[in-house]
Every structure is written in structure tokens, then in C-alpha cells.
Amino acid sequence: MMSVNQSLNQLTEALWTPMEGALRLADALAPLSKSELTAIRSLNKLSGLSSLKKDDLAARLAELLPPLAADIVNGADEELFGLLKKAATDGWLAESADFGRCGYLMERGMLFRGSVKGRNRWMMPVEIAEAFKKLDLAAAREAVRGNERTIRLVRGLLCYYGVLSLDDLHALLGPHLTAPLTPADLKRLLDEVYLYNEGIQTGEYGYADESALEPEQLAEEQRLRTDIPFRPFSTEELLQAGEWNYIERNASFKAFVRFLETNYALSAEDADGLILECSFNIQLGASPSQLLEFFQEQLEMEDALLIQGFIGHITELHNHTRFWGLKGHTPIEMSGEEGREATTAKTAAGNVIDLATGRKIGRNDPCPCGSGKKFKKCCGG
Which of 207, 241, 275 corresponds to the end of one domain? Predict the structure, then answer.
């Protein structure tokens, strides 16, 4: 009897069609089903072909797809452009090449799965490769560099704001562009990027950071906060925030990491990872008491002074986190106290901001840790 792993291996290998020599586009399209051909037609926005029978549709796609190589390049980032250039030169890409981007090119009819002498490869049909080689590569590189910069700026904006409508995104992006970009061109680029580049979501709300769990709800929350303008950021800040897996490690973040390293036998990497997870939980709306519970599950916390230290750092990190619902502002900025240093000592003295009201918590107010005690009798004591 065949094992589950053997069955999966056979199924996987069946996706890579044995081939010999160069691949012609007509030969690549002919074995596809009518639904697969229709998917390629739809993704390439080719109209007037829906009534064609399977063989006729395959023949028309073989004629219409090569000229679309220019459109693919116009929406490419640098990594996708590099894959196209290599595939056009060699006629193929290794199976290990970026799966998301290769899958996108396959869905566009630019690459096909093939097996040559037992080696799985992403094959580029000769006609597609020739069309790519005929492009003005110098102009293409310039366009791709512009795309890369725009994409990073957009990811930076979404990192700080969480979600933006197309109009807001276009308005906020404008001052940071080196060349003007219309809303229609921006939408065209981002809708293409969404198909091959993880990092953004899109929907009726516009565009959102990939980690935003409920972008529609977030967009509504921002819409209702008419009293808060979007916080401005410099071009350099946005480009930095647009890097993959960026997290703002501000003074409060770094101080919390040092606190863990000092009080626990944790490496800098492990301590950073815990504060990183804490930051994500803060952005998702976790309360100070929930965050304290999170750390209690991860670490031993028996000493009362140690617990107070955690509360101080949690509150500092809370108050210096850029909230999507606050349109990129931190609670401390909203309170007008943004100039003060983020230190646990000052937190213990009472410089704590209530996230719901944006005001400083008084010593007789309930403690934000959720204990039910007055702040002066708890973490502010």
C-alpha cells in the first residue's frame, strides 16, 4: 500500500510536466483546461474572448500574451524584474525561485511548470522571453526602481496608519514621490503588487498592512476620529518602515529589552522577541493587565518590585506605540507630553497616559494594570 507521503510526492511531481528543449507558448497553453485558460485571460484583462472554445482561446492567448511582457515589467518590483530577466536569458528558473512571484507569473501565462531531465523548473516560453528581450531594459530598470521606492513608501505608510483609502494614500504619498503619480496609476501598481508581493491587503476600504486583522473596522475607527489628523512622517522614516518585518524599536522598546536581559537569563534575541510580541499585542488592543498576564505565562514573576517594573515598562511601551486608530500618533503625543524621556522611573512617578482618554493618569485614578486599586496604591506607589 502506498503511504501518504508517497501519494503527496506523486501528486507534487505530477504538477511538473516532462519537457525537452525550448518551450513554445502554444505548446504550453494547449494542455490547459478551459477554466485555466480563462483564468489567464481574466488576470490579463483580455476582453472579447469569453465565447471562444478551448482550442481557439489557447490560440488567441498565444498571440496576445507576448506583448503583455511590458505590462508585467511596469508593475514589477526589483525582485520580480530580476526573475523575469534571468528567465528570459536562461529560458527557465530553478524550482527553488521565489514561489509567490513565480506563481504570479504562471497565473499571467509567463511561466509554466516543467521537468527537464528530472529537474523541476519554471519554464519561460520562447515568445515571452523574446518579447522581454526587445524591451528597452534601461527604461525598464528605471521604472522598476521607481516602483520599488513607491512600494516601500506605501508599506511604510501602512505600517504607521494600518489602513488607508486610495485617496488618503495618494495624498499622503505625494510629497515623498520623485515623480508625480495619478491615483489610477497608483491603484494599478498596488493591485498588481498585491498579487505577487506579501505586505499589503486590499478591499473596499482601500489598502491595509498585512497584519491588520479587521481593516474595515479600523478604517471606520479612523473615519470617526475627525479630530485627529494623520501624523506626518519624513521620507526617510517611511522608507525605513517599508522594510520587511520592520518594527519601531524606540527608547521604551529598548529599555524593556534591557530590563528582561538584566532580570532574566535571556539572550538579547529572545528578549527582543518577547517585546516584539508584546508590541504586536499592544497594536491589536491588548490591555496592560493582559500584557502582564502574557509575561507571567512566559516568565517567573514572584517579586512585587519585579512586577511593578513590568507594569512600568508595559505602560511606557503602550504610551509610546504608534496606534493605527490614532492615525500614527502615540498616546504620549496625543497628551502633549511627547518630549519627555521614556523611563520606568518617570512612569512610577505617575506619568502614565490613559489610552482611552489620552490624558495623564492621576495618583487617585484606577491603576491601568487592572488591579482595581488606585494608581498610587499600586504601580504608581
Answer: 241
Q: Is 115 a member of any domain?
A: yes
257 shares a domain with 206? no
Instruction: Tell me the C-alpha to C-alpha distance, in Å, between residue 73 and each of 77, 85, 170, 177.
Output: 8, 10, 22, 20
One domain, residues 256 and 372: yes
Q: What is the pLDDT of residues 71-113, one digit of tens each?
A: 999 999 999 999 999 999 999 999 999 999 999 999 999 999 9
Q: What is the pLDDT of residues 277-321, one digit of tens each?
A: 999 899 888 888 899 999 999 998 888 888 989 999 999 999 999
Report phi then psi at 297, rounded to 5. -75, -25
Task: Report, as ranges of residue numbers, the positions in the chain whose pLDDT lies below 70.
Answer: 1-14, 337-363, 366-381
Does residue 193 lie within any of the structural domains?
A: yes
Helices and strands in the chain, H and E counts: 19, 7
Start-end of H helices in the chain = 4-14, 25-29, 34-43, 54-64, 69-74, 78-90, 99-107, 126-133, 137-161, 166-173, 183-196, 215-224, 235-241, 251-263, 268-283, 288-298, 304-319, 331-334, 344-348
In a domain, 139, yes or no: no
Residue 125's domain comprises 13-133
Q: Same structural domain for residues 321 and 205? A: no
Instruction: State the pTM of this model.
Output: 0.82
Amino acid letter, 106: M
Q: Are 375 and 362 in contact (CB under 8 A)?
A: yes
As a whole number of angstroms, the distance between CA 194 and CA 328 comes to 23
Whether residue 293 is found in the same domain as residue 271: yes
Give the C-alpha separation, 67 to 61, whole Å. Answer: 11
Q: 182 and 233 share a domain?
A: yes
